[in-house]
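ok so dumb question maybe but i'm new to this and my supervisor (M.) told me to 'just get the structure for tRNA(Phe) (4-demethylwyosine(37)-C(7)) aminocarboxypropyltransferase' and walked off. so i did the thing. is this what she meant?? sequence i used:
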Amino acid sequence: MVAIPLLTAEPLIIWLQAGILHQHHPSPQELSETEWYCLGSRPDQPSSPKGLLIPLEWCAPEGTAHFVKRDARPRSTSAPRAELTLDQLMAWVETERKRADMVSILRQITAHMFTRLVPNPECSCEPLLTNLPLKWEQYHQFVLFPPNAFQDDLWAIFFAQPIADQTLAASVTKSVSTGTQSTPIALAYFALVACAFRATHLAAKASIPAGDVMRRPIIVPLYGPWASAWQQCQRYLLPPRQLEPTSSLTYSKLNTDTFWASARQNGIEYRWAPLHTMFCAGNITEKLRIATSPWFRVAEGTVVDLYAGVGYFTLPYLVHAGATRVYACELNPWSVQGLCHGAKANGIAYHVTLLAANLVPDTTPPASHSSSPSPTTAPLQIYAGDNALAVTYFENTAQHVNLGLLPSSEQGWPLAVRALHPHGGFLHVHTNSRADEITAWVDHTLLPTLRRLLIRWKTLPATTTTTGAFNACPWCVEVQHVERVKSYAPAVYHYVIDVQCSIART
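this is what came out, is it supposed to look like this??
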C-alpha cells in the first residue's frame, strides 16, 4: 500500500488491494465515520474539499499534515496496512517542519506515533500531548530539553509498547542511537524528533548537585551516538597535586570519544561536552556586557578568571574587551578541554598548565598542548586544577578579576585580592541573592570583607610612620555597578557586583 500524492477537485479515496487499484469519491457519511489521512486539506472542511484522502488503516502517512479525530468505533483489523519505514517517517517530518512551528510538529509526531503504534482504540494520546515540553535549548545539532521531559510514567508506558509493523521495527533497529531510551518505539520517536530539529543529539537536563564544585551536569541522553562508555563513567574528584607542565602528559590511554556541542554567542564560538560540563546560555547578557561596557575596557591589560568553565567570560575578555593576557583557572578537566577547543575555534593561542600529577585515564580528557610556539607569551594561560594552587602565577598582575562561581564565589575572594595589581583594579563578584537582600549583603558582607583582605594582602612596601608604626595601604572600595543577570530560582537572582578597588588619596 502506498499513498499517491494526487490533488483532485474533490476528495478521492485511492488504494491498492490484491494488486488492483481502487478509487472512489467518498460520501459525506463516509467522511464523517472514517479516520483519514488527508493530503492537501482536512476532510472535515468540506467547503474546500481538495486533496487525496487515505484511510488510516490502509496507507502510510507520506506527505500528510493533518489527522481527523477517530471515532469511538473499534478499528477494523481486516483492512490491509501499508509497509512503513523510519526513512518514510523522517521524510514526512522533513516536509512538515517547513509548514508549522516546532511545538506543533512535536504534537503531530506524538499523535501519529501513538495512532500508528498503539493498537488499543480506546486509548487516547491527549495526556502525552499535554505533557510535551514547550521550550528547549538548541545548539546547532544538539537539543537540550527541560528537566524530566519525556521521563514520567506516561512516556514509559508509551515507549514500552511493541511495534507491530515489522518493516518499521526492522528499520528502527538500524537507527544509530545509544540514548538511554532504547525501546524500538522510543528510538523511532526520538529519531523523528531529531529529524524535526535537524539535530544529531537529544537530551533532557537535570539539576546540578549543590555540593559539586566542578558544576558537572546530569543529563539524560535521549537520542544520538553518545558512546556508551561515557554514560557509565564514574564521577570523579581531583585531589590537590603538584604543578606539572602540559608536556608531561601521556595520551595513549585517555578516552576522548565523546560528543562535543557548540554554540555561537556575540560572535564567539563555545565548545563543551554535555555529558561532563554545563553551558550557561542565560549568561549571554553578562558576556555582552563584558564586550560593550566601559567598565571592562582592558586594552593591554591583564584579567584573571578564577572560575573559567568553558570560557564564558574568558573568551569575551580576549575577543571583545581587548585584554592582552587572561589567566584562566578551572577545576573540571572537561571544561579545560572545552576552553581549549573554544580558544582554538576563535583563533586564540593558549597554554595549559596542569595542577595535577596525572589524569584519570578512563574518565578525563587530555589537556591540549600549547597552541603557541612560545607558551609564556600566549594570551590565554590556562591552569587546570585548584585555583588556590595557581594564584602565585598571576599574583599582583590583574586589572580585572572575574569570580563567576554560583551560588557564591566567597571562597575565591582572598585569591581575587591577591591577584589584583598593586595599584588596584576591578573585582566582578558573582552571587545568588534575593532582590530584597542584595543591598544589605553588599554593604555588610562583601565590602567589609574585601577591605579586610586588601589590608592583609595589599600593604605599602615596608613603610613606617615617624613614630615607627606600620602604615597599612589605605584602600578605597566602591561598588560601581550591580547587574541582575537572570533568575536563578523563585525570588532568587544571579547578580554581578562590579567593585573598584583603588588606593585612597591622602
